[in-house]
Design a protein that fits this description.
The protein starts with a strand and ends in a 12-residue tail after the last strand. A 3-stranded antiparallel beta sheet has the order 1-3-2. It has one helix at about 15-25, and strands spanning about 5-10, 30-40, 45-55. The chain is elongated, with a radius of gyration of 12 Å. The chain has a single domain (about 5-55), classed as ACT domain (Alpha-Beta Plaits, 2-Layer Sandwich), CATH 3.30.70. With about 60 residues, the protein is α+β, with helices and mostly antiparallel strands. It has 1 helix and 3 strands.
Length: about 60
């Protein structure tokens, strides 16, 4: 299994963590580490998620743009 790290920066809004963790689960991934925070001054959300693909998916299998 390959260890992967996803970093996310976007406008802070409800449901981001659920959407990301749900997507990774649907793709057959297991989250091994997660950290996130909101910058209340700028309204930005930051997240770092470590995960492994239990189905052998590679970087090219995800549809992040």
């Amino acid at each position: 299994m390959t260890n992967c790290v996803l970093t996310v920066t976007c406008k802070s809004t409800r449901g981001i963590v659920a959407a990301i963790s749900g997507y990774l689960a649907e793709m057959g991934c297991n989250i091994t580490d997660s950290s996130q925070f909101d910058d209340l001054g700028t309204g930005r959300f930051f997240m770092r998620v470590g995960f492994v693909s239990e189905k052998g998916a590679t970087r090219g299998d995800w549809l992040w743009g």
